[in-house]
Specification:
21% strand, Rossmann fold, 8 helices, two-stranded antiparallel sheet, 7-stranded mixed β-sheet, 212 residues, 33% helix
Length: 212
Protein backbone atom coordinates (compact mmCIF):
# COMPACT_ATOMS: atom_id res chain seq x y z
CA UNK A 1 0.00 0.00 0.00
CA UNK A 2 1.30 3.44 -0.98
CA UNK A 3 0.12 6.04 1.51
CA UNK A 4 -0.30 9.56 0.15
CA UNK A 5 -0.62 12.27 2.81
CA UNK A 6 -2.06 15.60 1.69
CA UNK A 7 -1.54 18.34 4.27
CA UNK A 8 -4.34 20.85 4.80
CA UNK A 9 -4.47 24.24 6.50
CA UNK A 10 -6.98 27.07 6.61
CA UNK A 11 -7.21 29.03 3.35
CA UNK A 12 -5.47 26.47 1.17
CA UNK A 13 -6.15 26.62 -2.57
CA UNK A 14 -8.49 23.79 -3.52
CA UNK A 15 -6.97 22.81 -6.87
CA UNK A 16 -3.50 22.66 -5.30
CA UNK A 17 -4.72 19.66 -3.30
CA UNK A 18 -7.45 18.19 -5.48
CA UNK A 19 -5.63 18.42 -8.83
CA UNK A 20 -2.70 16.16 -7.90
CA UNK A 21 -5.04 14.03 -5.77
CA UNK A 22 -7.01 13.11 -8.89
CA UNK A 23 -3.81 11.81 -10.48
CA UNK A 24 -2.10 10.22 -7.49
CA UNK A 25 -5.15 8.43 -6.10
CA UNK A 26 -5.06 6.29 -9.25
CA UNK A 27 -1.71 4.75 -8.37
CA UNK A 28 -1.96 0.99 -7.81
CA UNK A 29 -2.69 0.13 -4.17
CA UNK A 30 -2.83 3.79 -3.16
CA UNK A 31 -4.38 5.13 0.04
CA UNK A 32 -4.87 8.88 0.34
CA UNK A 33 -5.22 10.59 3.70
CA UNK A 34 -5.98 14.25 4.25
CA UNK A 35 -4.09 15.37 7.31
CA UNK A 36 -4.04 18.56 9.39
CA UNK A 37 -3.14 19.83 12.82
CA UNK A 38 -6.64 18.83 13.95
CA UNK A 39 -9.18 16.52 12.37
CA UNK A 40 -12.33 17.94 10.83
CA UNK A 41 -13.31 20.40 8.11
CA UNK A 42 -10.68 22.70 6.61
CA UNK A 43 -11.94 25.62 4.53
CA UNK A 44 -10.31 26.76 1.30
CA UNK A 45 -9.12 30.27 0.45
CA UNK A 46 -12.53 31.32 -0.88
CA UNK A 47 -14.39 30.17 2.20
CA UNK A 48 -16.69 28.18 -0.07
CA UNK A 49 -15.25 24.67 -0.21
CA UNK A 50 -14.31 22.35 2.63
CA UNK A 51 -12.12 19.26 2.71
CA UNK A 52 -12.15 17.03 5.76
CA UNK A 53 -8.91 16.10 7.48
CA UNK A 54 -9.46 12.54 8.65
CA UNK A 55 -6.11 12.32 10.43
CA UNK A 56 -3.92 14.58 12.53
CA UNK A 57 -0.21 15.03 12.00
CA UNK A 58 0.37 12.77 14.99
CA UNK A 59 -1.68 10.02 13.32
CA UNK A 60 0.33 9.94 10.09
CA UNK A 61 3.93 9.07 10.79
CA UNK A 62 5.23 7.14 7.79
CA UNK A 63 3.63 8.25 4.51
CA UNK A 64 5.26 7.29 1.22
CA UNK A 65 4.26 10.54 -0.49
CA UNK A 66 3.66 13.92 1.13
CA UNK A 67 1.89 16.69 -0.74
CA UNK A 68 1.79 20.28 0.52
CA UNK A 69 -0.62 22.63 -1.27
CA UNK A 70 -0.29 26.40 -1.30
CA UNK A 71 -2.73 29.25 -1.03
CA UNK A 72 -3.04 32.53 0.88
CA UNK A 73 -3.19 30.60 4.14
CA UNK A 74 0.39 29.47 3.60
CA UNK A 75 1.72 32.74 5.03
CA UNK A 76 0.23 32.00 8.45
CA UNK A 77 1.84 28.55 8.44
CA UNK A 78 5.43 29.66 7.85
CA UNK A 79 6.19 29.55 11.57
CA UNK A 80 3.68 26.87 12.56
CA UNK A 81 5.99 24.37 14.19
CA UNK A 82 3.27 21.72 14.33
CA UNK A 83 3.24 21.59 10.54
CA UNK A 84 6.94 22.26 9.96
CA UNK A 85 8.09 19.70 12.51
CA UNK A 86 5.75 17.11 11.00
CA UNK A 87 7.19 17.80 7.55
CA UNK A 88 10.73 17.33 8.82
CA UNK A 89 9.82 14.14 10.67
CA UNK A 90 7.97 12.37 7.87
CA UNK A 91 10.40 13.61 5.22
CA UNK A 92 13.09 11.44 6.81
CA UNK A 93 11.32 8.36 5.44
CA UNK A 94 9.22 9.55 2.50
CA UNK A 95 9.84 8.26 -0.99
CA UNK A 96 8.57 11.54 -2.43
CA UNK A 97 8.05 14.94 -0.82
CA UNK A 98 6.03 17.26 -3.03
CA UNK A 99 4.32 20.62 -3.19
CA UNK A 100 2.13 22.78 -5.38
CA UNK A 101 2.27 26.56 -5.73
CA UNK A 102 3.35 28.28 -2.50
CA UNK A 103 3.39 24.95 -0.72
CA UNK A 104 7.07 24.91 -1.68
CA UNK A 105 7.59 27.86 0.67
CA UNK A 106 6.44 25.63 3.51
CA UNK A 107 8.86 22.90 2.48
CA UNK A 108 11.58 25.55 2.33
CA UNK A 109 10.60 26.98 5.73
CA UNK A 110 10.99 23.47 7.13
CA UNK A 111 14.54 23.43 5.75
CA UNK A 112 13.87 20.71 3.19
CA UNK A 113 14.78 22.64 0.04
CA UNK A 114 18.15 24.12 1.05
CA UNK A 115 20.30 24.28 -2.09
CA UNK A 116 17.71 22.38 -4.12
CA UNK A 117 16.12 23.38 -7.40
CA UNK A 118 12.45 24.09 -6.87
CA UNK A 119 9.54 26.04 -8.24
CA UNK A 120 6.48 27.85 -6.94
CA UNK A 121 3.89 30.32 -8.15
CA UNK A 122 5.67 32.83 -10.40
CA UNK A 123 4.98 35.64 -7.95
CA UNK A 124 6.62 33.68 -5.11
CA UNK A 125 9.88 32.66 -6.76
CA UNK A 126 11.91 35.48 -5.20
CA UNK A 127 10.58 34.57 -1.76
CA UNK A 128 11.47 30.94 -2.33
CA UNK A 129 15.06 32.00 -2.92
CA UNK A 130 15.22 33.79 0.44
CA UNK A 131 14.56 30.44 2.13
CA UNK A 132 17.58 28.78 0.59
CA UNK A 133 16.12 27.11 -2.48
CA UNK A 134 17.31 27.56 -6.05
CA UNK A 135 14.11 28.74 -7.77
CA UNK A 136 13.32 28.05 -11.41
CA UNK A 137 10.43 29.10 -13.60
CA UNK A 138 9.76 25.53 -14.73
CA UNK A 139 6.30 24.05 -14.35
CA UNK A 140 7.43 20.89 -12.54
CA UNK A 141 10.87 20.48 -10.95
CA UNK A 142 12.35 17.23 -9.64
CA UNK A 143 15.44 17.36 -7.44
CA UNK A 144 16.07 13.99 -5.88
CA UNK A 145 12.89 12.94 -4.12
CA UNK A 146 11.57 16.50 -4.00
CA UNK A 147 9.01 17.37 -6.67
CA UNK A 148 7.63 20.90 -6.72
CA UNK A 149 5.01 22.36 -9.02
CA UNK A 150 4.43 25.95 -10.05
CA UNK A 151 1.08 27.70 -9.63
CA UNK A 152 -2.21 25.91 -8.93
CA UNK A 153 -3.03 24.06 -12.18
CA UNK A 154 0.53 22.73 -12.50
CA UNK A 155 -0.22 20.36 -9.62
CA UNK A 156 -2.05 18.15 -12.12
CA UNK A 157 1.13 17.93 -14.21
CA UNK A 158 3.15 17.18 -11.11
CA UNK A 159 0.79 14.43 -10.03
CA UNK A 160 0.83 12.83 -13.47
CA UNK A 161 4.62 13.10 -13.62
CA UNK A 162 4.86 11.25 -10.32
CA UNK A 163 2.41 8.56 -11.46
CA UNK A 164 4.73 7.90 -14.40
CA UNK A 165 7.81 7.74 -12.16
CA UNK A 166 6.13 5.31 -9.76
CA UNK A 167 3.89 3.14 -11.92
CA UNK A 168 5.41 3.56 -15.39
CA UNK A 169 4.55 5.43 -18.55
CA UNK A 170 1.76 3.08 -19.63
CA UNK A 171 -0.10 3.50 -16.36
CA UNK A 172 0.38 7.28 -16.41
CA UNK A 173 -0.91 7.48 -19.96
CA UNK A 174 -3.94 5.43 -18.95
CA UNK A 175 -4.62 7.85 -16.08
CA UNK A 176 -4.28 10.80 -18.46
CA UNK A 177 -6.68 9.20 -20.92
CA UNK A 178 -9.30 8.16 -18.39
CA UNK A 179 -9.27 11.60 -16.75
CA UNK A 180 -9.29 13.13 -20.25
CA UNK A 181 -6.50 15.47 -19.27
CA UNK A 182 -6.02 17.17 -22.62
CA UNK A 183 -5.58 20.90 -21.91
CA UNK A 184 -6.74 23.21 -24.68
CA UNK A 185 -7.14 26.58 -22.94
CA UNK A 186 -9.06 29.34 -24.73
CA UNK A 187 -6.28 31.83 -23.94
CA UNK A 188 -2.49 31.68 -23.93
CA UNK A 189 -1.87 33.85 -20.87
CA UNK A 190 -0.98 31.23 -18.30
CA UNK A 191 2.61 32.36 -17.66
CA UNK A 192 4.15 35.80 -17.16
CA UNK A 193 6.18 35.37 -20.34
CA UNK A 194 2.96 34.98 -22.34
CA UNK A 195 0.40 37.14 -20.56
CA UNK A 196 -0.28 40.79 -21.41
CA UNK A 197 2.36 42.93 -19.71
CA UNK A 198 -0.26 45.09 -18.01
CA UNK A 199 -1.71 42.07 -16.24
CA UNK A 200 1.71 40.87 -15.12
CA UNK A 201 2.57 44.27 -13.69
CA UNK A 202 -0.82 44.60 -12.01
CA UNK A 203 -0.31 41.39 -10.05
CA UNK A 204 3.34 42.09 -9.33
CA UNK A 205 2.23 45.30 -7.68
CA UNK A 206 -0.13 43.63 -5.24
CA UNK A 207 0.92 43.09 -1.64
CA UNK A 208 0.67 39.30 -1.43
CA UNK A 209 1.50 36.82 -4.19
CA UNK A 210 -2.00 36.33 -5.64
CA UNK A 211 -5.27 34.55 -4.94
CA UNK A 212 -6.30 36.61 -1.94
Amino acid sequence: MTQIAIALFDRFTALDAVGPYEMLCRLPDAETVFVAERTGPVVNDRGELTLVAGKTFADVVNPDIVLVPGGPGQAAQMENEALLAWLRTVDAATTWTTSVCTGSLLLAAAGLLDGRRATSHWLALDTLKTFGADPTGERVVTDGKYVTAAGVSSGIDMGLTLVGRIAGDDHAQAVQLLTEYDPQPPYDAGAPQKAPAALVEEFRGKSRFILQ
